[in-house]
């Protein structure tokens, strides 16, 4: 028999149900509040990153004419020479680092996964050892017989590349390991072996093309480290390195270092855009291949 009562039942259970029952419009208010908080965080982040750039731009434009600092920088032959030198060292560092990290990460994930924590710890050692200690150790070891590398320009360049390879290990290994985790390494390897491929061909023709985006990310981080690094290049007397050039420029000029910083920042963002476009093209090709 119905009494016509539509409210919650009496007793503790009824009171709890009335409390827990969502009020009309409460979900919309929570979503609006979350959206507002997200927008506030985004705006604060944009101001946090853009305000220093705007201040640097304003400072670099103070000379008259306003483009004087940029004209002086672009007309300086040391600017292009240091950028080319750092870019060359960075490319060599990327190649050497990949030739070490890629086979190691592939073999660990395929054959000895128990050693993965050990390899991860070894690749994190550059975070523990400061760069100044690393370069002093390199100079102490390789400035005496039988390996006198610091006596020649080529030897110093080789030591610089070796030091940068060590510094790139944490970034390059994690990029490669993340890429390997996104593909079925064992199935690809077994399929390639069933077709008669050797280990070198498997790495170069099967694994490497599937890690394009991950390798580009690791390469970009390595290149950024090489271009901006100062300590190791300074102690090895590599004054052609871009970080050392920027430091020396700041000792003699006032506005040109700000212009160089903005130019290098623009080149960095350009490299990031290229990586994003290449990565998006790779994903599109994978989806098309899967649809077939």
Briefly characterize the structure.
The chain has 292 residues and is mainly α. 79% of the residues lie in helices and 1% in strands.
Q: Which terms summarize this structure?
A:
single chain, two-stranded antiparallel sheet, globular, 292 residues, MetI-like fold, mainly alpha
Notes on the structure:
It is a single chain. The protein is an all-alpha fold and 292 residues long. The protein folds into 2 domains: 24-60; 68-291, MetI-like fold. The chain is built from 14 helices and 2 strands, in the order αααααααββααααααα. It has a two-stranded antiparallel ribbon with strand order 1-2. α4 crosses α8, α4 packs across α11 and α9 crosses α10 (199-210). The longest helix has 36 residues, at 256-291.
CATH topology of the largest domain: MetI-like fold
Strand content: under 5%
**CATH homologous superfamily of the largest domain - what is it?**
MetI-like
CATH architecture of the largest domain: Orthogonal Bundle
Biggest sheet features:
2 strands, antiparallel
Q: Provide the residue-averaged pLDDT.
A: 81
Helices and strands in order:
Elements: H1 12-20, H2 26-60, H3 68-75, H4 77-110, H5 116-123, H6 125-128, H7 131-142, E1 143-144, E2 147-148, H8 153-181, H9 185-194, H10 199-210, H11 212-228, H12 231-235, H13 242-252, H14 256-291
Helix pairs in contact: 2-14, 3-14, 4-8, 4-11, 8-11, 9-10, 11-14, 13-14
């Amino acid at each position: 028999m119905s009494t016509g009562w539509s409210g919650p039942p009496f007793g503790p259970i009824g009171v709890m149900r009335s409390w827990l029952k969502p009020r009309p419009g409460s979900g919309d208010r929570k979503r609006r509040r979350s959206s507002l908080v997200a927008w506030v965080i985004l705006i604060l982040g944009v101001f946090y990153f853009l305000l220093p750039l705007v201040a640097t731009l304003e400072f670099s434009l103070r000379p008259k004419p306003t483009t004087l600092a940029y004209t002086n920088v672009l007309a300086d032959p040391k600017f292009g020479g240091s950028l080319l030198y750092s870019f060359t060292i960075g490319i060599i560092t990327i190649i050497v680092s990949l030739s070490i990290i890629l086979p190691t990460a592939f073999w660990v994930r395929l054959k000895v996964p128990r050693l993965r924590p050990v390899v991860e710890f070894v690749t994190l050692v550059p975070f523990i050892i400061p760069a100044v200690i690393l370069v002093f150790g390199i100079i102490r070891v390789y400035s005496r017989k039988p390996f006198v590398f610091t006596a020649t320009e080529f030897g110093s360049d080789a030591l610089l590349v070796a030091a940068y390879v060590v510094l790139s290990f944490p970034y390059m290994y994690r990029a490669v390991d993340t890429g390997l985790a996104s593909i079925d390494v064992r199935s690809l390897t077994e399929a390639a072996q069933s077709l008669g491929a050797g280990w070198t061909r498997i790495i170069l023709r099967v694994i490497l093309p599937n890690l394009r985006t991950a390798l580009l990310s690791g390469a970009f981080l390595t290149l950024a480290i090489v271009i901006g690094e100062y300590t190791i290049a300074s102690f090895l007397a590599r004054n052609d390195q871009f970080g050392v050039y920027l430091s020396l420029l700041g000792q003699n000029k006032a506005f040109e270092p700000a212009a160089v910083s903005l130019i290098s920042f623009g080149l960095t963002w350009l490299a990031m855009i290229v990586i994003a476009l290449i990565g998006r093209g790779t994903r599109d090709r994978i989806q098309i291949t899967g649809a077939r």
